[in-house]
Amino acid sequence: MTTALAQKKKVRINGCVASAQAAKYADVDVITAYPIRPYTATMIALAQMVANGELDAEYIVADSEHSQLSIAHGASSSGARVFTGSSGVGVQFAYELYSPISGTRMPVQMMIADRTLDPPGDFGSEHTDALSTRDMGWLMGWACDAQEAFDNHLLGYRIGEDRRVLLPQMVCQDGFFVSHITTDVELPDTGQVREFLPDYKHPYPLDPRRPVSHGPQIMPEQGPPLQLERARAMEGAVPVIEQAHEEFARIFGRRYDPWIEEYMTGDAEVVFFLQGAHGVTARYAIQHMRQRGAKVGLVRLKTIRPYPTDRVKDVLGRFAVVGVIETNLGLGSVSSGGVLYAEACAALYESAQRPLVVSFMAGMGGEAIVLKEFYWMTQKMLEAKKRGKIEKRTHWVGFED
Amino acid sequence: MPAIKVERQMLPMFASPNQGARFYNPELPQTEPFVPGHRTCAGCGPSIQYRMTSKAAGDNTILVGPTGCMYVANSSYLCTPYNVPWAHTQIGSAGSFTAGVAAAYEAMIRKGKWKGPFPNIICEAGDGSASDIGLASISGALYRNHDCLIICYDNEQYANTGIQASSRTPYGGMTTFSPPGKMVPEAKSLYPKDLARMMAAGHPHCYVATASVGYPIDLMNKVRKGLNHKGAAYIMIYTPCQKGFVYETPRSIDLGRLVVECGLYPMWEWDPEKRKFDYSFRPQNMRPVSEYLKLQGRFGHLHAEHVATMQKFANMQWKMMGVELPDALVRAADVKNVRDMGAAQAAEAVALTV
């Protein structure tokens, strides 16, 4: 096998193209596409790469997202490295397949560029599409910019295809805020990728020379061990994820904490807790608010499955007030707001120092969260700190005084 | 790296005429990719078909099993009757999962990641999957022309779930979702979806055929033709279900012949080269539909008018195949010459007790 001599290079691309580039660097065998904005741009880029002969892969235009994921399942079951993706209602049209894919332990990779569900169905980013699948046995995390998205794809394959894990991955980025905003992305040398990401070899593929049966019917009493195995694979992924990030830092020179990014939290009294692209605007807003004397910081969740419970407990336990910025819909949920709140609170339950936690419904419909709103939310957190009590569990930002 | 050429298999045809070798043929391969010991019902048409199909395909084969009897009854309790790789997939994923397997092998062989001749990739979808919930996925696989064979094992109902009507359930067929009653004495009032012809018409580049377990050698040759055809192939196979059709279990093969002899299951092949239907298959006899209906409990409630209606339907199918109708069949389509099925009165009484 010859290693291409291409050097590392900086290019200016958006999140969708960064994902397509990552698939190309991962030398995927089968790509399954179905159009829906905004993730479509990834598949447009890949179609061109295949047409140009830059990437040798089967490029399949599926007849629906359900078929997209089924094709991915079949291809992965046969031993191919597979790339697929979707957005919004497309993610949900394929819902049936999420459990079978993780249940048969096939490390399919799916790129998500979030989009609101219907309603409102607009092109903006709400995380509800992917989050609704969060308990289906897929590794899952959000990138906040195009570089991180590119890196997360390579990390995803490396972690998911590890024999100790063998789980599918949802590599998520916010629609538009990441998927369609152009930034500098460093593309690696293919030799680096080959070193980081070995060929995919499933231990039990559908191979006529070594016949196996995948997914036979079982008795109820045979179910629990299967479910336990899947749960253990998810737990067992934790050290593999940490190891992969170490290797990644060594080979590519970019070091990420796999679980949590902290920004200006050293002396912070109140912090925002969120996922994805709003982390970028939050950093900027925090700089402004710091100038005005507010001791505010940011804790960004990078991986939500497996959930870093102890890290969340230890990190969030250091602050007086935590404001969860949801960007997702959990209608009738424990906070009557979003779903991130409940998990943050559950992680904190065992903490000796429990902060006040409040949920902010912001960025809904894919709206940008503007500076003014960050100020307003900070104010609410500072008031809660002073009062020693939250005003209410959930604030719909922009609908209150 | 230069792409590696994909080598395809070419399976020889069995020389026997299409109606010969009913019980034994020394030419048949010894291999049994589908072994006995599974949990299908006695006389199960789909599993008889499964054995023939996989025998014809041989060992370099991968089977895909969307949810249905051939998944649930075969792979029960972590046992498996499959001597070749087999994977379950969702009932709506028949064509798509199969396409994924085919695409994976195209890419893996081309890229040097798997060495050997391209395997036979066969999907065994029940008619519920093939005519209803998985129709689009199968159409997608045929349209994109993946090198695979998709089989609809047609037992004319959702049998695994306890006998419910599918788009393939014939007019007059009683199922738990189409019971006879005062308002609908005929039970199922809709005609079956013309599934295989729809597949041929919509995907003319594919090899498409119909077959029946009543004609094993014909069935196996069609399977081999489908596998030899480079690209997608589709075969709809009549596979009676003792549980749903309600007949004596040794008569599965008889039903597989009678359904053809009565004109209710036209046998044909679609030639993708000539873009033509080949209707040259002729059963040894032609019979009135009542000969077929009277063996099955699911038609026991039918009145003379319904039997005549079915005969009219059968006569249209004969005409479609270019067969001249004998007078007897024309007369059999006239209600005056037809009698109620034996259980018609009893069925009415039973319906009233619910």
Show the helix and strand layout.
The complex is a heterodimer of chains A (401) and B (354).
Chain A: E1 9-13, H1 15-25, E2 30-33, H2 40-52, E3 58-61, H3 65-77, E4 82-86, H4 88-93, H5 98-103, E5 109-113, H6 128-131, E6 139-143, H7 146-160, E7 169-173, E8 183-187, H8 190-196, E9 213-214, H9 223-252, E10 260-263, E11 270-274, H10 278-291, E12 296-301, E13 303-305, H11 309-316, E14 321-325, H12 340-348, E15 356-361, H13 371-387, E16 394-396
Parallel strand pairs in A: 2-3, 2-4, 4-5, 5-7, 6-7, 11-12, 11-14, 14-15, 15-16
Antiparallel strand pairs in A: 1-8, 6-13, 10-12
Helix pairs in contact in A: 1-2, 1-7, 7-9, 8-9, 10-13, 11-12
Chain B: H1 45-57, E1 61-66, H2 69-72, E2 86-89, H3 94-110, E3 120-126, H4 127-133, H5 135-144, E4 149-154, H6 195-202, E5 207-212, H7 216-228, E6 233-238, H8 242-245, H9 252-261, E7 269-271, E8 276-278, H10 289-293, H11 304-320, H12 327-332, H13 344-353
Parallel strand pairs in B: 1-2, 1-3, 3-4, 4-6, 5-6
Antiparallel strand pairs in B: 5-7, 7-8
CATH architecture tag of the largest domain in chain A: 3-Layer(aba) Sandwich
- Proportion of residues in β-strands of chain B: 5-15%
**Oligomeric form of this entry?**
heterodimer
Q: So how many helices of chain A?
A: 13
Uncertain residue segments of chain A: 1-5
Q: How helical, in percent, are the residues of chain B?
A: 25-40%
Describe the structure.
The complex is a heterodimer of chains A (401) and B (354). Chain A has 401 residues and is an alpha/beta fold. Chain A has two domains: 9-252, Thiamin diphosphate (ThDP)-binding fold, Pyr/PP domains (Rossmann fold, 3-Layer(aba) Sandwich), CATH 3.40.50.970; 260-396, Rossmann fold, CATH 3.40.50. Chain A is built from 13 helices and 16 strands. In chain A, α1 runs parallel beside α7 (146-160). The longest helix of chain A has 30 residues, at 223-252. The radius of gyration of chain A is 21 Å and the shape is globular. The model of chain A is unreliable at 1-5 (pLDDT under 50). Chain B is α/β, with parallel strands linked by helices and 354 residues long. Chain B has a domain at 45-284: Thiamin diphosphate (ThDP)-binding fold, Pyr/PP domains (Rossmann fold, 3-Layer(aba) Sandwich). Chain B is built from 13 helices and eight strands. Chain B has an eight-stranded mixed beta sheet with strand order 2-1-3-4-6-5-7-8, sandwiched between helices. In chain B, a hairpin with a 4-residue loop joins β7 (269-271) and β8. In chain B, α1 crosses α7 and α3 (94-110) packs parallel to α5. The longest helix of chain B has 17 residues, at 94-110. The N and C termini of chain B lie far apart (70 Å). The mean pLDDT of chain B is 94. Chains A and B meet through β3, α3 and β9 of A and β1, β2, α3 and α5 of B.
